């Protein structure tokens, strides 16, 4: 067991390093000089070079990479090229916001996905299954921003009211703060709910075919007990592996939802940074996201190893 | 289907068996009866393909044709889905949009499949240090949220249909390669392959005649569901401005472009493409699910092998 | 734009000695004056709430030209002279009035002397802490303006030779050459007076803490992606102003969401730039908001179509004219959600400069024809130029950054051209790539973009057509044009200058150097309880709101 854990941790390190390399190079592939962008329509020949030097962008790329990596190790993610605000400060403000949105969306996904998946598996190809699966697919196939726009704009036109208002800070009241995430989290979570529901259904269906389940039935245990006690536990294990992917998916979907609901999270920040070629910000955000996902996957793997006694390395 | 308790590892395929071509018609009917949802999905997919291939015949107008005196008209007998603010027939644009979605979808999935198969099969077959290194890169790649990668790639490459296809396929390839690797691993462990090797079959022969056919089921299922995902992804990208560029009438662009501005005033501009997206995703997913149920009940993969190695 | 009345008899010097703003001539048919401008007793109190579509990039006015920074700064800073605001000012006219300068004189063509107001205090915020503003501040500001690396606003004042603080309240500007636009340029929004202590303490003015000015409000807080909030400056040098206690700017990138916010009463002004509401949404808005006050006028933003004169086929005048005739601008504005058919055609000087833009019917015969859509004529011209079957050209445009309306605009233009035989190979570029290459001339064929960032009419032909200017991507080097441009800069008499500029516009249109294009006549809207407000073009939101009050 310990060997497995150690090995798994060891394996995560090169992944992170490679990820950091990707994180660093990806934005620099994008054409469009950030300095020219800053000066927009009015760049003057000499000024460009001055500005570039001021921002440290005229050093060779490997030098910049190593500098950056060293700084990150010291906990310094650099400053935004545009606003000069430290990247870490901005992230510290926005990460919790996106995290709350993401966690709530994941919660919605699990709360809807698993029960519906269970019910669906208990009576496969029946009416409930049909409705559940169709509903799930519809939920995930209607683009989130359509729903979001309808939800914010129509009430304003019909009744002069809109759920979207100025973003409330935590200090103004934790309840209000939490409530404003509910609607966006639901819209964001529905797509993931579909995936989780189908996976739960599939896994459960498969487990229910196994010998040990048959044995339980033969022993005379009631269907529901069998399902919940024995089968579900085993079926949920692979579902957990999906969570890692769902985190990635939700992070991506969060961008659009944040945009429409005016939630100052990392998604909007990242899109702006990409358009403006704000390399330190892009790198900082990507690094944080990647680390979160790698850590999530790592945790899931370890939990999986603990839960499933058959996995031993 | 074997009843013995086996490791619930996602991504494992059935033990390989000899490959016969079954009578197609009987199979189709059996399929329809056992899996009605899948059959419905199949019908939708078929309709989509017909629309895509025969768009020129089905659509009454060209997709960028401005019809005089027909600006923002609601659905009517003449314009089944109304017209948009540039006086174009929405129904024609939806039909041509099927062509775009199918093209982008199939090209993306094809490219992703080729990449994933190459990576997954080679990684599993060659093993050793190569496998370790490749899997680390795939790990790192998969840690990026798809949207981040696509945005960066699209910003780097610029707008354009081939760039979009490339960016989308890179995402799919990473996770699919994991699944295929898992499937390859289990095929290689089977007694058939051992026997073939004992008989002196070369690597290429083994890969082509044993590994690939048995991995094919996996690939088909991944591809079918992937098509639905690609279509959705494109509409999200259009919203952020990185999707299929004009004048191509992609559903996503119709929905998030002027369709969005006119949502309250001329809802047909946005609602019909949205419905088209939903139907297509629904169809592909139902079909893929049913195929999965039928071809490989043990394949409930999310794309992650639990071993992580 | 000079504010002196254009009587022939009044000498320029006398007119300038007066200095105080007089109303511009009421030019008929331009921007209807806002409805509802009764005299009332101002009420103090309340918070003005508006929506804005983007965060500021940062807060240093010497490091960006972007309106997303300039508009937020307009609430907190002042400059020597400003554009007069209020319901009595017709939109699209830009009369100048004193701001920090009490009066000014112009002893000769290249010297200006400004007398500052006394007792102007900086905001009571560290590190400036409410001390008095002096000529030294003005000198410091403009020296930084001209010498700091990477100031994209430099052309606004690059002809200034030196700035001297003659005494505590007197500043003297000496120009390298005469520039009749100097005062108008000083009134533009990049010329704010900044404080030395802030630059010394923070290194530059990018950080939000460094925003300390002398304007009607103080920047209290910036929550990125959420809002900017301002509170009243207790020591503002115009006593009694501002009436509103504070300003709340809600930052919201999504147009539907901004509209919903306004319709549900959470903001007091129209949701788009310059408080415009899209014509598409106007009926709903009027219905939801009884007593809504509106003003209709042409705004500054318009399309820009560029090509290189040296490259065939654009070196042939007939081809350039054909391009114009092949473009159906009216169709563009009828299709866009924002405009819904409300628009004004633009010559090279946008129609939003009512006093300087030539009415289309006063162009020469060839120039006028550019604005008459006629595909058959276009084909004929092309055939005469040796392209009987049209030609193919690459066209670069930015993708998706300006919204679906711009994308539609590009599609319509390309479709128009195709009908005349001009095949466009559309190359869409991501915004950053477009700005850093195409704008500076790195393109083959043509490009389609937007223009409207400059606050003075001269820039629209100076920057594009003067040889040596970085934005002269066309490669124009026409001695006749160059002479006219130089001449208008030296012509202080308003009427004579207008004639020269009219001549420039006629010439440019005649030579096909500028394709037909237009700007939207926007509907600017504000709630019934906002009094004493009048909209206008320009980034100076603060200047236009400082004398407004809330009557609830």
Structural features, described:
The complex is a heterotrimer of chains A (313), B (309) and C (552). Chain A is mainly α. In chain A, helix 12 crosses helix 13. Chain A is globular. Chain B is mainly alpha-helical and 309 residues long. Chain B is 68% helix and 0% strand. In chain B, 58% of the residues are buried. In chain C, helix 9 packs antiparallel against helix 12 and helix 15 runs antiparallel to helix 16. Chain C starts with 11 loop residues before the first helix and ends with a strand. Classes of the chains: A mainly alpha (313), B mainly alpha (309), C alpha+beta (552). Chains in contact: A-B, A-C, B-C. At the B-C interface, helix 11 of B face helix 12 and strand 15 of C.
Short summary:
Chain B has about 300 residues and is mainly α. In chain B, about 70% of the residues lie in helices and about 0% in strands. Chain B contains twelve helices and no strands.
Q: Low-confidence spans of chain C: pLDDT under 50, at least 5 residues?
A: 1-37
Shape of chain A: globular
Helix content of chain A: over 70%
Fraction of residues in H or I helices of chain C: 25-40%
Biggest sheet character of chain A: none
C-alpha end-to-end distance of chain A: 7 Å
Question: What is the H-and-E element order of chain A?
Answer: HHHHHHHHHHHHH
The whole-angstrom Rg of chain C is 23 Å
End-to-end Cα distance of chain C: 37 Å
Based on CA atoms alone, the radius of gyration of chain A comes out at 24 Å
Low-confidence stretches of chain A: 41-46
What structural class do the secondary elements of chain C suggest? Answer: alpha+beta
Oligomer: heterotrimer
Number of helices of chain C: 17
**What's the helix count of chain A?**
13
**Average of pLDDT of chain A:** 73
List the helices and strands and how they pair.
The complex is a heterotrimer of chains A (313), B (309) and C (552).
Chain A: H1 2-29, H2 34-39, H3 45-54, H4 61-73, H5 87-122, H6 127-141, H7 144-159, H8 174-179, H9 182-208, H10 211-218, H11 223-261, H12 266-276, H13 279-307
Chain B: H1 24-34, H2 36-53, H3 55-58, H4 90-126, H5 128-142, H6 146-157, H7 161-188, H8 191-198, H9 203-240, H10 251-256, H11 258-261, H12 268-295
Helix pairs in contact in B: 1-2, 2-4, 2-12, 4-5, 4-7, 4-9, 4-12, 5-7, 6-7, 7-9, 9-12
Chain C: H1 12-18, E1 47-52, H2 67-73, E2 81-83, E3 96-98, E4 101-108, E5 111-116, H3 135-147, E6 160-167, E7 170-175, H4 182-186, H5 196-202, E8 217-223, E9 227-232, E10 246-251, H6 255-263, E11 276-277, H7 282-288, E12 293-307, H8 317-325, H9 329-335, E13 343-346, H10 365-370, H11 375-384, E14 391-398, H12 404-419, E15 422-429, H13 431-437, E16 446-451, H14 459-465, H15 479-490, H16 494-510, E17 517-526, E18 530-531, H17 541-545, E19 549-550
Parallel strand pairs in C: 1-10, 14-15, 14-16
Antiparallel strand pairs in C: 2-3, 4-5, 5-7, 6-7, 8-9, 9-10, 11-17, 12-16, 12-17, 13-17, 18-19
